[in-house]
Amino acid sequence: MSEFNGKKLRRTHKGRIVAGVCSGIGEYVGIDPNMVRIALAIATLFGGLGVGVYAIGWLLMPDEHSDTSIVQDLVSKQQERGSTDWSGEHKPQP
To answer: What are the two backbone dihedrals, phi and then psi, of residue 43, each rounded to the nearest 5 degrees?
Structure first.
């Protein structure tokens, strides 16, 4: 069987202004990234939702040259540290 090679939602470098979220969404959906930017700007003006959506996209969308997002990298680093919790304290093994 052939592997599915569909589009993947990624932050792009081409057309990037801040973190590439809008250009990545625009490329994925097939619209001009400026339309996404305008929509987020309007959402920001009417309640501030646009900033939160952009920040979540930045944290959860992987870069086009990476397979993992920022959040996935943080979680995997924490798992590599083993039984040490977020405060830096070592937990005893059961």
So the answer is: -65, -30
How many C-beta neighbours within 10 Å does residue 3 have?
Answer: 4
The answer to whether the CB of 70 falls within 8 A of the CB of 59 is: yes
- Exposed e or buried b for every residue in 18-53, given b needs 16+ CB within 10 A? ebbbbbbbbbeeeeebeebbeebeebeeeeeebeeb
Instruction: Specify the residue for token string 């009417």.
Output: 46
3-state secondary structure of 78: helix
Task: Note the pLDDT tens digit of each residue in 70-89.
Answer: 888 888 888 887 755 556 56
This prediction's pTM: 0.68
- Closest among 4, 5, 6, 9 to 60, alpha carbons compared: 9
